[in-house]
């Protein structure tokens, strides 16, 4: 009996060894892809390709994006490997312009995994492809015009007032606080109100239900990280196993919440100046009041997801609202966090910005208005420089919809080849931004911007797939900063991380361990006028 067991173990061991050898050989063969095409590439290692440090959560994704850019310095493009999957990185600004704008017909898709049958919330604008993306983009674009931003602006100001009130006692004692969480609660209040029409009051109650579900949506467990990797290199596995890219409980919560909100408003004829109201209008009419009426549009058959050319389905509405939450919550709160950090490290810049805020608000009777924020040119430079140093999404991705001949080369990319653009690499390239680690808002003076190639600054992407919520994100960030800096001063403390360390578990660039800054009430007389 013992002999048979040992023999079985030996057979199993041989099979495992053979399987590993086959896998290793396949990976080594895959790693010759770029060499065969005579494309410069970063040498990969088994089994991670060039993704080892990030896959093992030793370094954040932003490090990966910046590192591969640096290692391919001097080339216009270069090959990398995401595990065994070949990817092409574009470094040259002219080639980047081709991908994002000139040859957009070939690169109109992001190549992001989605399966609406398994996960309805995945069918949002960011991940949709082809004609469905174009149709939805046309519908949603009017929801982010300056007129619609003005419509939501007062709610942002109210959230800003609540943010100031939340910090008043703490600032009076000159305490050291973790600002990232507070700013995340501010962003959650803004998004919950403007996207979902829900007053969750996270600033007053940090354990509010919406805040808890928001945290869970961003919780990068090992399971979700593995799912994220599979979605990039082997999406067929997720399809076969029917695995959702969103936590099941989170998905059920957001779907139910949107459905109940819509049904309540329709039943009681409730109307609000928010994103949800605009989605309801699109659901009912297929267009917004300022657009051409749906009766003038061509008819289109109902597709398998219940969306027509003349309206949005309930699941599509939920998906767009969920994407609005994901994009507007984390990116804006981290941008404000990094901005306050830089202003604390550079008190002279903070004081200059505060002077501008005081001057402009005084012209507007001490009130934060849409027009007042638009007048703050130095604030715009400060936010732009923050987004340069700390772009929330370190990279852009696109997918070839057909074979693509790289201009001025003999290289032809295969259909479905995914390409990368290292945003953080471009933003930290000394060729475009001398002394790139220095925080200098004057890089974004009109004179300096004219000196640079337009496609070396891409915090929101560019071209037809530029971030549709860019205006809202910037507006939310600026209102938050003006609300705080008009009343409080920020400075570094013993707990402030200098230099910064980034969270390796976060896909979006985020500080590790939070951001600890000292906050004090302003000593200037003008602060009294704003009370």
TrEMBL record:
Upper lineage: Eukaryota, Metazoa, Ecdysozoa, Arthropoda, Hexapoda
Cofactor: heme
Family the entry assigns: Belongs to the cytochrome P450 family.
Binding site for heme: 467
GN (gene name): Cyp6a14_5
Keyword Heme: yes
Coiled coil regions in record: none
One annotated GO molecular function: oxidoreductase activity, acting on paired donors, with incorporation or reduction of molecular oxygen
Protein name: Putative cytochrome P450 6a14
